[in-house]
Amino acid sequence: MNDTVLVIEDEVIIGELVKFNLMMRKIKCSIATTGQEGIEMFESLNPSIVLLDIRLPDIDGWDVCKKIKQKNPDSVVIFMTAATQLKDREIAEKMGADDFIEKPFDVNDLISMVNKYRISR
Fold first, then answer.
1. Average pLDDT score over residue span 34-49
2. CB crowding 2-40: b at 16 or more within 10 Å, else e
3. Number of domains observed in the structure of the chain
């Protein structure tokens, strides 16, 4: 596992904003815009942290999370989503997600969350 963060987000502006802010803090980052692309990039990059949207154009984030955790249970998956109901958090936990941040989020809160998981590894 390497120290890369993989962002799986179909809204390009959000993905680029997250990537820019991570890279400004010297954190390597890659972006996928579909679930399938995210799974393939996960397999090739072996990132330590995945920032994952639930609503993706092909495979939903729940299934992406499940596949990532099956491939590497130690990978940290943080959902970034506008789906904010309690049932969404419960499903995220059931799929193996490590954390959950609601959109719209303060980018500094997201960076703090990423750093918390980077430090604990």
1. 97
2. eebbbbbbbeeebbeebbebbeeeebebbbbbbbebbbe
3. 1
